[in-house]
Write a structure and sequence with these properties.
About 5% of the residues lie in helices and about 45% in strands. By secondary structure, the protein is mainly β.
Amino acid sequence: MFFMMGITDGQKRFDFVQTIICNVCGGYGRYEVFMTYTVLSLFFIPVFRWGKRYYVKSTCCNTIYELDPEVGKRIARGENVQIQESDLRMCNQGRRTMYKRCQNCGFTTEENFDFCPKCGNRF
């Protein structure tokens, strides 16, 4: 007889939308909330979860915040919650990426070129 079990890390995204003006980059964006956890699986079936932590990612500059656990639990239950700055603790500051798109050929780049490297027209 053999016994199959494993311990892995998991992530669950929540259907949560809150538009913001970012304090880091000053751009418009929204908060995306997700939970990370560790799970024990028996025969590939998740049995027990522990170590739940809630995080928020801003879509404008990809800054990641750790969310207050009580607020995270309320979002997980589907309650209508407004995330406040006091509920967040910055974990990883992101940076805003600016894209340039050529009007002539549609080439997109993050570089600060004056002319398109593909067709040569001015951006």
